[in-house]
Design a protein that fits this description.
The protein contains 17 helices and 33 strands. It is an alpha+beta fold and 606 residues long. The strands form 12 sheets. The protein has a 6-stranded antiparallel sheet. The protein has a 3-stranded antiparallel sheet with strand order 7-9-10. The radius of gyration is 39 Å and the shape is elongated.
Length: 606
């Protein structure tokens, strides 16, 4: 970014002081900043000016802020604030010190298996929280995974995350990154959380081999390889690859989503035991999923039995064919085995049942914190039961996690109109409970709120706010001729700081302790906590301090000697020869009074 463009980001929202740019993306720049209010480092993501006028990009940017605000997890970058700035938009996030996983792989090459498993468990834990909130990330890649010096992993960039409640399809040129995109995402199909599992598998593959499984001359070429080509196993590229870790990675990267881990919970379980003797979850079943979603056992016959097996298969086929023909002629219908549908999206379940000439009937929908919305929780009849073709299979669907609370948005520093719009988006009600003076916030800006930012609140609840009345100012009253004690107490009660000096009695004021002068003068408007000087009368013998500034040292000495005033000299360096030997300042100032025998200080140039 040119320097002149960078300057306009020096202070954002009157709170975040920009220090330097730390990253650039396709649609936004990220800066390191200081939160002046809370005195902490933050990362500020600013939408590029090219996209600030595009409603779709602004909506995505706003969506990212709202998504992150409701995802509270130690492995997800936390969002603190968002808003509009200089015709664009910003998100203020947790600043993570460290490097991206991409940078680590580029520097170190293949990572140790134990490190890969540790990172993978942390990433999976973050995804599990997102999936429980009915969100899929859709852009899992090493560039979006940050690692702190303490080996803490943070998943970031939910800019294209999408709710499973919507039609999760997008064209390739907009969504995802070609090297990490799932086959179903490349084909523009409806997505579920298993698209993140595929992308994570690619990331694990890259951590293990320091390379991605598919390369090509352009995004389309790479995407077609994701759809059509089988990746080489890491053990075919490198030696000493842990077999179980390789199996986990390849299972994540199955082309068919139904053949992958059903959720990241199972993936976490396998990662935790890959170094043990315990079998992996999918290998323990001894099964694999074909494209129709039917479970078939893996069989590796010996060469000597192939011919016999072929004859037996042919015989079995003829037996099933004639049995089926006879059954239909006698019973008028055929029987099919009900496939398993649990933890599968309803749309996919319909497609699977259609292959068996069965129908899906949604019996009920209930809240479930473990299973994403739209996925099947229970089915009737149960898997494996034989039913007539054309039968109805009843299913209970998940409505996802019941939203019983909302995390309160940050309103501090916003105008009333901005706060009203944000609360409306969250389904909350604004209540102004008071207005207070503020030396920090301008008039009509919000200075406090209850509940506080990120606290839980019921949907439709009220957010109480306190609005700034601006800086508190005070008109200095006319207290001349009052006694000093009463005048001082009155000023202090108004929130002013009082200092005093003395002046000798005059013909008009012939009583000591009376206010003779007020600085600033009565009627002046000053901020609260401003300093007000009271000049009070005294019967003491006082000497007026003459004005000596700009006189030569010799001239000043002569005047002070004639008035019997002592003096001290303090020399100060000057860049101009004309000021050498000249009085550049004095203390006390001219016009004040000192006691006889007191000294004044002369500041002389040299």
């Amino acid at each position: 970014m040119p320097e002149k463009d960078f300057r306009k980001y020096k202070l954002i929202s009157k709170r975040y002081r920009i220090i330097k740019k730390i990253a650039s993306g396709g649609m936004a720049d990220i800066f390191l900043g200081d939160d002046l209010k809370l005195n902490r480092k933050v990362a500020v993501k600013v939408l590029s000016a090219n996209y600030a006028g595009d409603r779709n990009f602004v909506a995505r940017f706003k969506s990212e802020a709202q998504i992150l605000a409701r995802l509270s997890h130690p492995n997800i970058v936390q969002v603190y604030d968002w808003g509009e700035f200089n015709g664009s938009y910003f998100i203020c996030m947790e600043y993570v010190e460290g490097e991206s996983l991409k940078e680590i792989i580029e520097k170190k090459g293949p990572l140790p298996p134990e490190t890969i498993a540790d990172y993978a468990i942390q990433i999976s834990s973050a995804l599990l929280t997102a999936h429980k909130n009915n969100l899929i990330h859709r852009d899992i890649k090493p560039q979006n995974i940050l690692v702190t010096p303490e080996e803490k992993v943070k998943v970031t960039d939910f800019g294209i995350a999408k709710s499973l409640t919507t039609d999760v399809t997008k064209t390739l040129n907009i969504m995802g990154t070609a090297h990490y995109i799932s086959p179903e995402q490349a084909k523009g199909e409806v997505l579920d959380h298993r698209t993140d599992i595929y992308s994570l598998g690619i990331v694990l593959y890259e951590m293990l081999t320091a390379d991605v499984p598919f390369r090509g001359s352009n995004s389309i070429d790479i995407s077609l390889k994701h759809i059509n080509e089988k990746p080489l196993k890491p053990s075919e590229l490198m030696e000493n690859i842990p077999e179980k870790l390789e199996d986990i990675i390849m299972h994540c990267m199955e082309k068919n989503p139904l053949a992958r881990y059903p959720t990241v919970r199972e993936l976490i379980g396998d990662l935790q035991k890959y170094e043990t003797d315990k079998p992996l979850s999918f290998s323990a079943k001894g099964q694999n999923l074909n494209r129709a979603g039917v479970f078939i056992k893996k069989i590796r016959p010996h060469l000597a039995t192939i011919i016999i097996a072929a004859f037996m298969i042919a015989f079995l086929f003829l037996f099933i064919f004639y049995s089926y023909k006879y059954y239909n002629s006698t019973a008028g219908h055929n029987m099919v085995s009900v496939p398993p549908l649990e933890n599968i999206p309803a749309e996919n379940a319909k497609e699977i049942l259609a292959l068996f000439d069965l129908n899906l009937i949604v019996k009920d929908e209930i809240y479930n914190s473990e299973i994403p919305e739209g996925f099947i929780i229970e089915q009737t009849p149960e898997p494996g039961k034989n039913v007539p073709a054309g039968s109805d299979i009843e299913a209970i669907l998940s409505r996802g996690q019941e939203i019983t609370y909302i995390l309160t948005p940050n309103l501090i520093g916003l105008s009333m109109e901005e706060a009203s719009n944000i609360l409306k988006d969250f389904g909350l009600v604004k209540v102004v409970i008071s207005k207070e003076y503020s030396s920090t916030f301008k008039k009509n800006l919000i200075i406090d709120q209850s509940p506080q930012f990120s606290e839980k609140i019921e949907p439709g609840g009220s957010v109480n706010i306190i609005v700034s009345k601006g800086k508190e100012t005070i008109v200095i009253p006319n207290i001349i001729d009052l006694d000093f004690r009463n005048a001082s107490n009155h000023l202090k009660s108004l929130g002013l700081i009082v200092i005093s000096s003395k002046a000798p009695l005059t013909g008009i004021v012939n009583e000591p302790g009376i206010v003779m002068k007020v600085i600033p003068s009565p009627g002046s408007r000053v901020d609260v906590n401003s300093v007000v000087e009271l000049v009070i009368s005294t019967s003491e013998l006082l000497v007026p301090v003459p004005n000596l500034v700009q006189l030569s040292l010799e001239q000043a000495k002569n005047i002070l000697d004639s008035d019997n005033i002592n003096y001290e000299i303090s020399y100060i360096n000057t860049d101009y020869s004309v000021q050498e030997g000249t009085v550049l300042g004095q203390n006390p100032e001219a016009g004040t009074y000192i006691s006889p025998g007191s000294s004044i200080i002369l500041f002389i140039g040299r």
